[in-house]
Amino acid sequence: MSIPQPGASGRGPASGSAAQQAPRAHGFPSPARDYLDGGIDLNRELVRDRTSTFLMRVAGNAMAASGIRDGDELVVDRAATPRHGSVVVAVLDGELVVRRMVFDGTVPGLAVDAPPAALGSHTRSAAGPGTVILESDDGAAPVVLPAAGPEGLRVWGVATYCLHRL
């Protein structure tokens, strides 16, 4: 017994025709098809400018109230312009620190989110001879204003995202 090939008997489509090769959709289309997307591209989601964006690991808990904790990774954009309230990576007394940018009029300063009691004596030792500490009476976090000097306040970059393990 032999099985006739399509097109051989003249009843079916000719071998290799478009009707034979293209599958047809029958029935209701899958609603999941609307949500199909390629993989997640973190560069596309988190990075605005690849040439000026870096990933940095946080050491310390000075910004814990903002959800930035020891061991977290920050996406830092060096081309972004820091504004009042931005979380920045700055050079303070020769060290990179993560702080919140604040302005006292037009004078830029750096603030931590942790209350002074949580920082203990570290608050005063973090500010070297080229800085001035403004402490409030209401227990708010101190603001560090770099004194006028050859470098002044140098912002290394603006943190745009914080990544941490759950």
Topology:
Blueprint: H1 18-21, H2 42-46, E1 53-57, E2 73-77, E3 87-92, E4 95-104, E5 107-111, H3 116-119, H4 122-126, E6 131-134, E7 143-146, E8 154-163
Antiparallel strand pairs: 1-2, 2-8, 3-4, 3-8, 4-5, 5-7, 6-7
Q: What this model shows, in words?
A:
The chain has four helices and eight strands. The chain has 166 residues and is mainly beta. It has a domain at 48-163: Umud Fragment, subunit A (Ribbon). Strands 1-2-8-3-4-5-7-6 form an eight-stranded antiparallel sheet, with no helix packed on it. A hairpin with a 2-residue loop joins strand 4 and strand 5 (107-111). The N and C termini lie far apart (66 Å).
Summarize the structure.
The protein is mainly beta and 166 residues long.
Q: Which key phrases capture this entry?
A:
4 helices, mainly beta, elongated, eight-stranded antiparallel β-sheet, 166 residues
Task: Determine the strand fraction and express it as a percent band.
Answer: 25-35%
Residue-averaged pLDDT, rounded? 73
CATH class of the domain at 48-163 reads Mainly Beta
Neighbour order of strands in the largest sheet: 1-2-8-3-4-5-7-6
- Cα(first) to Cα(last) distance is 66 Å
Instruction: Give the biggest sheet.
Output: 8 strands, antiparallel
Apparent shape? elongated
Radius of gyration: 30 Å
CATH fold-level topology of the domain at 48-163: Umud Fragment, subunit A
Given the structure, what is the number of helices? 4
Query: Can you give the helix content as a percent range?
Result: 10-25%
Category from helices, strands and their pairing: mainly beta
Order of helices and strands: HHEEEEEHHEEE
Q: Which residues form runs of ≥5 with pLDDT under 50?
A: 116-138
In CATH terms, the superfamily of the domain at 48-163 is Umud Fragment, subunit A
Number of strands: 8
Q: Which second-level CATH architecture of the domain at 48-163 applies?
A: Ribbon
